């Protein structure tokens, strides 16, 4: 497997609160990203390992972003990957604000100071058709044991508010609800505990990935769900396994702010690429 006749494929390894990504830059070279490539690179023993792969391409604004889950499926949104790439492009261009197009729409990202990066993930989808759900229902209280909240953030979410997030056997719980028949496109699953005024402890199971240390879109969905339920205000701190994000649901969209890390840069060897079937 080759790209524009070049040997090997450069990549960056980045993470936002331990939610980790392989980032490919396709702005100056043509890349064909197959399901097999995504799955091979995602493998944490035989490849590099990641929660999502993100591809930077040319776009109507500063860049266009495409996201892939570890199982090869695509996702219209990935909040932490968007923040990671925004930080990369802010440092590359010297700009303090960027316009990034995605399948979810055009997202605005900003330098928040102190090494933090903010991104506006847009307005949440609250109607059952937009999320989407399989049939008409109240998205604030689904007819599922535990009465979770359904939210769309460019990808579907199912948020359970629980007394103790640590007590939930997330591997079993998340796998069960990812494929719930109410979610025709599968769903991300969150277990969330209100731990203080405008503070949430949240753990996440991401569709096509499994348990992750953090999830930006899941944090936004959980913050929106908590505000809709009247459990918190609209500006909250979300504490995840890998660290904390600040989420602010404003009139213009859901802003998410937190740190990012560029861990290393590398090259996938041509022999590795040629071995992918």
Structure, explained:
The protein has a 17-stranded mixed β-sheet that branches. It is built from five helices and 17 strands. It has two domains: 128 residues, Roll (Diaminopimelate Epimerase, Chain A, domain 1); 103 residues, Diaminopimelate Epimerase, Chain A, domain 1 (Roll). The model has no long low-confidence stretch (mean pLDDT 95). It is globular. A hairpin with a 2-residue loop joins strand 15 and strand 16. The N and C termini lie close together (9 Å). The protein is an alpha+beta fold. It is 18% helix and 39% strand.
Percentage of residues in helical conformation: 10-25%
CATH class of the largest domain: Alpha Beta
Shape summary:
globular
Named CATH topology of the largest domain: Diaminopimelate Epimerase, Chain A, domain 1
Q: What integer is the average pLDDT?
A: 95
Would you count the extended β strands for me? 17
Q: Main beta sheet, described?
A: 17 strands, mixed
Total number of helices: 5
Structural classification: alpha+beta
Supply Rg. Answer: 18 Å
Q: Quote the distance from N terminus to C terminus.
A: 9 Å
Strand content: 35-45%
From the coordinates shown, what is the CATH architecture of the largest domain? Roll
Task: Please tag this protein with its features.
Diaminopimelate Epimerase, Chain A, domain 1; 277 residues; 5 helices; alpha+beta; 39% strand
